[in-house]
Every structure is written in structure tokens, then in C-alpha cells.
Amino acid sequence: MASQNQPRGAFIVLEGADRAGKSTQCQMLVEHLTAKGVAAELWRFPDRTTAVGKMINSYLTSQSEIDDAAVHLLFSANRWEKREELLRKLHAGTTLVVDRYAYSGVAFTAAKGLPGLDRAWCMAPDAGLPAPDAVFFLSLTVEAAEARGGYGEERYEKAEFQRKVLDQFAAMRSSSWRMIDASQPIDAMQRQLREQAAVVVARCQRGTEAVGKLWESGAVGGAPLTQLNQ
Ligand code: DGP
Where is the Thymidylate kinase-like domain positioned along the sequence (predicted)? Predict the structure, then answer.
């Protein structure tokens, strides 16, 4: 286990509804950090390459039906199975830019509005997972997402459902999330992300921050917004 004073990589999560541009922004950010000499990797959840991830992929592409509670636990298991590697990378000094995390996990299942599967139930299986140092939320209305050429073919890519997902994200938003207006041009968004990611990376390189745990208070998304804005 690394001590609290060891320099480490930053754990940066990008969240948002579908079509907000997360994947493009994550990729650009990793390329930028790498060019600056910061060891950085792009990760994404769900990670469809693992055995669990393959089950999730089959569900998302409607090749299989899985009970809603059970598939929720699979998405969570997919994060848990990557936990050790994630911590190892951070402590070895690699910054991880992660396309979606447990926040999507909660928002997408809670948006189903099923009896018994409320937000508290949805949060429970992810409790204790490493907490990110920063959460950047790419904010885009459903109308703007549709104007971008509409949603794809996967299970959740329907306007009505995406509206419910956005409501869930809004309900769980913490003051430590950094909101990024995803209706801006790609380069403007990226500029904002780079500036703010640099602050988080520097903080973690200074070695003053231990990796937090979900959903401990003060750990969801890292430093308060005011600090990130300085
Ligand atoms: P992506 O590969 O980022 O396009 O994500 C695939 C879809 O799965 C997308 O509609 C968001 C949804 N999703 C991502 N993570 C979770 C999760 O943990 N639980 C649920 N139910 N859905 C998720």
C-alpha cells in the first residue's frame, strides 16, 4: 500500500449522458498528457473485454436479456474486477482518464424507476471502490444530443430514457463535480479539461492525496469545485 505522501497518478473520470463527447475528450486528454510527459492511460467502463464485460456487451447490444438487478451487479463487478490494476497503476505514477464510472452505474439503473432499485440500492455495490480525484461532467441536453445525429442502436440510447438518466445524474451531482458545457466546440471543451486536469495531476504528483473510497463523504469526485477553479 502506498503511503499518503507518495506521488501517484491522478484518477480522472469523465461522466455524462450518451453523445456528450466523452470518448473523444478522454482520448484527446490522454494524448495531451502523454505529449506533456505525464504517464497516462485511457480506460473505459464498462470494460467489454473481460468475461463479465462480454456479458454486459451482449446485454447492451440486445443479444441477451438479463434481469435488471443482476445486470446492475455485473456492471459493478466489472469495476471491482479492475480495482487492483487501477490502484497499481495509480501508485506506479500513471494517470488514468476514465470514460464513465460508478456514477453512470447508479444513474442508468436508477433511471429505470424499478421498485426496490432506488438510488441507495444502486449505490451499494460500488461502495468501497477507489474514488476518483476529479469528476468532469459533460453536460448536454437530450435535444442537443439528438441534433448531433441522434443516438445509436444500443439498449439505453433512446431520448426518453436519456432524459431520466440526466435527472438521476442531476440528483447525485456533488459540489465536487466539475461541470463542462458539452455544447461548446470540441477544442474549447478540451482546453477547459486540460487546464483543470493539470491541477489535479499536479496535486497527485505532489503526493499529498491518498486515493479515497466511494461513497465516503469528501471522497466523491475529490476536491471541492472552488479548489479546482483556482
Ligand atoms: P459506453 O460504452 O460508454 O457507450 O456505455 C455503454 C452504455 O452502458 C451507455 O448507454 C451507458 C451504459 N452504462 C455505462 N455504465 C453503466 C453501468 O454501470 N450500469 C448501467 N446500467 N449502464 C451503464
Answer: 14-192
